[in-house]
Write a structure and sequence with these properties.
Elements (H helix, E strand, L loop, with lengths): L1 H28 L7 E2 H12 L2 H32 L5 H19 L2 H31 L7 H17 L6 E2 L2 H19 L18 E7 L5 H4 L4 H17 L3 E8 L7 H10 L6 H9 L9 H7 L3 E5 L19 E3 L18 H13 L6 E6 L36 H11 L17 H22 L7 E7 L13 E8 L6 H5 L3 E2 L9 E4 L3 H9 L6
Parallel strand pairs: 1-2, 3-7, 3-8, 4-11, 5-6, 5-7
Antiparallel strand pairs: 4-9, 4-10, 8-9
Helix pairs in contact: 1-3, 1-5, 2-3, 2-6, 3-5, 4-11, 9-15, 13-15
């Protein structure tokens, strides 16, 4: 029994090390990945088989640290696939991590801090466990009763090499090719960021005969999947038909098309910055370089150009709220801002944004935009369709003020004890039909998709309600998405719908010239006609349309 137990330790250690390296990748590639061998571990065991007793002790510590590094990279890759259908660049991850921590604190409070500390402590503990497992394997390989260790090492190297070259998951799988590619692209990104943004351009003087109001409504996570997912496609088409009817009642001219967003699944602030600057900003580190270096204040971005030419600029982000770890920022120098604490809302909180979009849109129109003279540029980043989609959206009412519930104090975000918060978060993201993460774009997760679709339809109806009032001055309205939703959409499609409404047909001319089709409805299979960054130039072209003197 003692002899058997002596051999059980190295075998158990080998199984632990192998499963630890492969388990995160199994969440991406499927469970078969966890039933193969790790190429890195196979080579590591081969090195231990060749090592002397003294060198083996050093190698076990190095191997333990390397194992933890590969495990951490696997976790990052799996989390990125779960959140945004891609493996994030390592250089980008550390900049994105603060935002993810803030999001986690919003959902589960101080439990997020506990989880971060526990994760770091856990990684240190796992390094020690991995080193102990490697030491037990080395001790077993040093056993004199074992056959020629050189043959064992050679066999393992051959096995690992076959796994590296073989197209399928057998007999061994490697994480290093993915890691090496990630490091290479991270270095490329770092080199790109060392080149400063072009701030040499001067802010142009626009010739704008009509001087139209420009109203941009970003419907959070509004993507092509609204038309391709079988659980919500019909409802989307009905919502677009209703939107077209609302526009027709007050004689709006309309055109629609898809654009190719710079991000998918999350990071809407990168999509907003792309639209403002006319530059693809697809990485968090690129965004941080833009705003932290001060380059944004020296650029001819969209709000700056319009402000220079007489437009009153208004930024509406009802989710933004100053709290520990978060400051309110106005990087693009809007003349007026509306954040959560600026809204006199006392009603029930709904979804991620807290304040229902119907209240936000109508309050800003009545109390912020109406008093402003001259042309106005308002950028609304709505939040009612932000993940997680747990509750049905509120009913649309005739008078938005009744939603405010002024007789009650503002309800703060609910904080829960650790266990309750964990269960609450898990319930919000539960795969109620298909338990597998929807990384490959299967038409699964119908219940989640239905709840997501309901929130997007809610926003489209809210905005349709605003179109039923004919504005007094020339106006250009854009209703569009920022990115495809996480969990539901295909990983290889970044298209988002763009619907353009104009009081004057001339304002639509730049959009129709680029392939936008008349009307509100869209063929869900149509290709994207523009990149998201091109909205910057199209809006500037549009405001300069009209009769010349």
């Amino acid at each position: 029994m003692t002899r058997d137990w002596r051999w059980a330790r190295p075998w158990g250690g080998l199984l632990f090390l192998n499963m630890g390296l492969l388990a995160p990748w199994a969440l991406i590639d499927g469970p078969v990945r966890a039933m193969t061998l790790s190429g890195e571990l196979t080579v590591g065991v081969a090195l231990l088989a060749m090592a002397s007793a003294r060198f083996g002790r050093v190698l076990t510590w190095v191997g333990g640290l390397f194992w933890t590094w590969l495990l951490a990279y696997g976790i990052i890759a799996a989390f990125g696939a779960w959140l945004m259908d891609e493996t994030p660049l390592l250089y980008d991850t550390w900049r994105l991590s603060m935002h993810l921590w803030v999001v986690s604190r919003d959902l589960v409070g101080v439990t997020a801090d506990v989880v971060v500390v526990a994760t770091l402590v856990g990684l240190v503990g796992l390094t020690a466990v991995a080193r102990a497992a490697a030491a037990s394997i080395h001790e077993a390989l040093m056993d004199r009763e074992l056959p020629d260790r050189r043959r064992v090492a050679a066999s393992l190297v051959v096995l690992a090499t076959v796994g590296l070259l073989a197209p399928g998951p057998w007999p061994a799988r490697w994480a290093m090719p993915s890691l090496a590619t990630n490091i290479w692209h991270s270095l490329e990104l770092r080199a790109e960021l060392r080149r400063e943004f072009d701030t040499s351009g001067t802010i142009p003087d626009l010739v704008s005969p009509l001087q139209p109001d420009v109203l941009v409504y970003i419907v959070e996570s509004y993507g092509r999947v609204m038309g391709t997912h079988p659980a919500i496609a019909d409802r989307w088409q009905r919502a677009l038909s209703d939107l077209a009817t609302s526009a027709a009642t007050t004689n709006w001219h309309t055109a629609s098309g898809f654009d190719d967003a710079p991000v998918k699944g999350s990071r809407s602030w990168l999509a907003d910055a792309t639209m403002f600057t006319g530059i693809d900003i697809e990485h968090e580190s690129k965004y941080r370089q833009l705003v932290d270096s001060g380059a944004v204040s020296r650029m001819a971005h969209l709000p700056a150009i319009l402000s220079h030419n007489g437009w009153e600029t208004v930024l509406v982000r009802q989710r933004d709220q100053a709290r520990p770890g978060v400051r309110l920022n106005n990087y693009f120098d809007f003349g007026h801002t509306v954040f959560q604490d600026d809204l006199p809302y006392r009603g029930e909180r709904f979804g991620w944004g807290g304040v229902p979009d119907q209240f936000v849109v109508n309050h800003v129109h009545d109390e912020v935009l109406a008093p402003l003279e001259g042309p106005r540029f308002a950028f609304f980043h709505l939040a009612s369709s932000h993940a997680p989609w747990h509750d049905e959206p509120p009913s649309i009412v005739d008078d938005y003020r009744v939603l405010g519930g002024a007789s009650r104090p503002v309800a703060p975000p609910q904080q829960r004890p650790w266990l309750s918060a964990t269960r609450h978060l898990a319930r919000k993201f539960k795969r109620q039909v298909d338990d597998r993460p929807n990384f490959q774009g299967e038409p699964g997760l119908p219940n989640m998709a239905i709840r997501y679709g309901a929130t997007v339809v809610y926003d489209l109806r809210v905005l349709g309600q605003t179109l039923e009032t004919r504005p007094e001055r020339p106006t250009l309205v854009l209703i569009l998405g920022d990115h495809q939703p996480p969990y539901i959409a295909r990983h290889d499609d970044q298209a988002v719908p763009v619907h353009v409404f104009a009081t004057e047909p001339a304002l639509l001319a730049p959009f129709t010239a680029r392939g936008f089709t008349p009307g509100v409805s869209l063929d869900a299979s149509a290709p994207a006609v523009i990149a998201h960054r091109e909205l910057h130039g199209l809006i500037l072209d549009a405001v300069q349309q009209g009769p010349r003197q």
